[in-house]
Design brief:
Helix content is about 65%, strand content about 10%. The chain is of the alpha+beta class. It has a five-stranded mixed sheet with strand order 1-2-3-5-4. The longest helix has about 90 residues, at about 145-230. The protein is rod-shaped and about 135 Å long.
Length: about 425
Amino acid sequence: MDATRSPDRSASALAGFPGPRRRPVGPARALRDDALLTAAAALSAVVIGGGRPDGHPLDALGWTLLLVAHLPLVWRRRAPLLSFLCLILCLAPYHGMDYDHTAPVAAAMIGLYTVAVSGRPLRTALVGSAVIGLMLSVKFGQGVSEGREALRVTGWIVALLLIGVYVRVHRQYIASVVERAERAERTREEEARRRVAEERLRVARDLHDLLAHSITLIGVQTSVAAHVLAADPDRLDRAAVAKALDDVAGTCRAARGELRATLEVLRSGVDDGTQEARGPLPGLDGLPDLAEAARTAGARVELSVGPREAPPAVGAAAYRIVQEALTNAVRHAGPDLTVRVAVRTRDAALAVTVTDDGAGGRHEAAHTPGFGLIGMRERARTVGGTLEAGPRAEGGFMVSALLPLAPTAQGGLT
């Protein structure tokens, strides 16, 4: 059964019989097909009219009216109603002169079907009522027997109109099914692209946090080793150098482990939306390790963690925010740094506060935020929280985040 791509297509398109998966019929192709159909209908009319006539034999006027009545069918797709009206204008005098009534039946039925299949049911009902009313008035005017014969023909006309309406409704139903399927396919593709974009952003945030934190610590630790080596070459403090190099090695091992876990997500190529597919999330239990790593870089870190459990997404967001805040403090706050990390539960939310007493250009950096502050705010927003960061009036820098313990969005966090 043929169908259109949309139930709101024009009447000419509905009469063009394009299938839902076929290429649309071009104007030239449609005109050629209708011309062939018109020629076939005219040929059948000639054969029937040249045989035993059902009425007066055809003369020159009758043949002219009969053949001219078929010509509007060539444009039936482009103007269905106008084509049918032209056909009626030719057939009305033809039947009025009592020429063969069977010869033009094929042309009349094609015109009626085109009107029914290309227009709304109300228009079809009006046209059908007008045709039937005109025919019955003329036939009953010629006699009761002629009227009875017209009533039998009326049944065929009604059946043909119902078939046309059914075909139109069925095409619209098929078109709506096809449209819903295509819309669902587009929705799936858009959802896949959205999830890919979210996953890329998540991996970018993870790599930024991991590399920035690890490289900053490694840089500070190697600077300590270089300072020890250059301060007093004659009295080399081997223990201090060994400790600095051990700290570098430990930071590299930790970074390698986190980097491996992040890259496994890319190698798998499958993300079903579950946290298990992304590996274990870091959480509040990893904060002591972050504090210890910052201490190896020379900072004094005071860690105070109240709750020990939180939803995985909230714990991961808190971990990454503390990690980025410590990294920024070690990188920008200068020497003799003290950092205070506090994690508390406040009004069904996790309050994370990281403050330091350093300087070292932090005020200028606060006016030109980089990806670190942007990433922290994004992580807070993904769990429905908020984050504020900026210089303190008494000196230093503060990062304060409020993360709901029942987040509205948990996707895209590790």
